[in-house]
Structures are given as structure tokens and as C-alpha cells.
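Entry 14. Ran structure prediction on the chain below.
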Amino acid sequence: MTQSASLLALAAAAALLMTASLPAEAGRLRQTSVTGPQGKTATRTVARDHGDVQSGVTGPNGKTASRVVDRSPGQTTATVTGPNGQSVTRTSTRSTTSPQP
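Output, C-alpha cells:
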């Protein structure tokens, strides 16, 4: 990896960390772009609405990755799609049980 590619990767990672730590609010859209020294750009877009999250990243070479999180009562489903097009989905359920006497 060249020095400029390393700097671009570092800047993109910093942008991801800054937007990932923001609290969720209803109907919020954020977009961040970082341009490296050779003019290559990486972009991250995040849409949040009532706990649901949709985010996408486009790297300097045009490859994309995405993450979709759907939160509903009792269940959360998260799907991540990498730059190679392969997806992984995780579903977690929550149940409340009454304490036994």
C-alpha cells in the first residue's frame, strides 16, 4: 500500500468513527467525504430513523459496502454487504420472561 493510499484509508477510517459514534435521532441523514492527496475520494452516507440505520461506504476505487439495521419490538436484524457483494445477516431476538415465584 502506498503512503497516499494509507493516508486515504486512515482519513476514511477517522470519518467512519466520527459518524458511527453519533446518537440516533429520527430521520437524520449524514454524508462525509474524504479526498486524499492524489484526488481519490471515499464517501460514507448514514441514514437513521427511529433506531433503524442504513449506511453505505464508497471507497476511492469505486467499491461499495453497506450495512442495514432494522430494529423492531423484540427483534433486531443487521445485514452487512461487503465490497465483494457477499452479505451476512444476523438476527437477534429479545424476550421478556416473568420471574418465577
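Strands lie at 28-35, 41-49, 52-58, 64-72, 75-81, 87-93. Will compare against last week's run tomorrow.
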